[in-house]
Amino acid sequence: MMKKLAIHLLSAFLVLLVSANANGQNKDLDKLLSYMEGEFSSAKQAKKDSSFFAIYLGMHRIWKNEYKNEGWFYVEQALMTKKDKPYRQRIYHVYQNGNVFMSDIYLMENPMEYVGDVEKVQKLNRSDLTLKEGCTVFLIKESRKLYEGATKENTCKSTLRGASFATSIVKIKPKEIYSWDKGLDAEGNQVWGAEKEGYRFKKIKKK
Question: How do residues 109-129 score in pLDDT, each as one tens digit?
Answer without folding.
Answer: 999 999 999 999 999 999 999
